[in-house]
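[Meeting: bench + compute handoff]

Bench side (C.D.) handed over the final construct sequence. Compute side (W.E.) agreed to return the predicted structure before the next meeting so the bench team could plan truncations. Sequence as handed over:
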Amino acid sequence: MVDLNMKVVEPRKLTPESRFKFRCYPGISCFTECCGKTTIILTPYDILRLKNRLNMKAKDFLAQYTRMELHDKSGLPMMIMDMPRFDHHCPFVKPVTGCTVYKDRPATCRYYPIGQGSLITEEGLEEFYFYVREPHCRGYEEQDEWTVATWRADQGVDKYDEMNRDWKLMMLRRAENGGPVTDERGNKLFAMVMYDLDQFRNFVFKSRFLTIFNVDDDVQERIWDDDEELLKFGYKYLKSVLKIEDTMEIKQPLGPGPGATTMTF
């Protein structure tokens, strides 16, 4: 389980209309301190943006910058930015100029100093917000005023939330017995589809995948070289494998359970 520092979370649920003052900029005394001793869970879309920004293969990005842990609810794998490997500092942040991947920074960084929480209700995924108030942060002393809604718009998080919604729904699931939703082989499949799009693309086009599933020609064209389309397709595939929704048309019957799909294609 990831050790999140709840001491800096203000226990008050915010609405999109909640107001606050904040500004971060080069020259403020605490500049980049929030980018160090923190826990950043990287979503599938975060990894997609970062590995493309750095012109890296997903497997190389994951090996160089992340570690894997299992979610405490679903037991599914998640990728954590491995700060301890870099002396508890983000490897993409310079002390004077700041973030070197700013246009493609993760959702957690975009939201800061707002935190975003998610839970599953009878209506589906509910997302809520809260303040993160770290002792070193001087940004709250600035006079620029925001609402949560205007901050979200300024930081460009809508696309991230859209692309990560299905991932969150899967991460928050529990099996009927209250335990993990899949087994070790199923977790390997989940990690490949969600976090290593290069390998998933090979899995689709260079295995028996297309002889087992009906995938329209136009979908194949889109996912051939478009990572965002491939990620969306990955959600559709995993919903079927994890028996969340009947989203894939099967040409041939599969063996029992999500793990059966890992090695057979």
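W.E. noted at the follow-up: The chain is about 35% helix and 15% strand. C.D. will use this when planning the next construct.
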